[in-house]
Specification:
about 55% helix; mainly alpha; about 70 residues
């Protein structure tokens, strides 16, 4: 069985990773090593907030007459 490359194998992932992801991963690993974590409820609350903001933006976009999809 072939396994995917390790998370710290940047030789294969550096080209494919979006800008800043490897730096963000390194900062996250350093935070975790130092014991700096965020409670799960805080993460879930932020995710719910982000989803609500995306839904609101989509509703506003859909309500804009300039975004109407023309009929066939």
């Amino acid at each position: 069985m072939r396994y995917p490359p390790r998370m710290d194998d940047t030789a294969n992932t550096a080209k494919a990773a979006p800008t800043g992801w490897l730096d963000a991963l390194a900062r996250s690993e350093a935070d975790l090593t130092a014991g700096r974590t965020v409670p799960g409820e805080a993460v879930r609350r932020r995710l719910r907030q982000a989803i609500a903001e995306m839904e609101e933006a989509e509703a506003q976009r859909a309500a804009d007459p300039g975004n109407a999809v023309p009929g066939r």
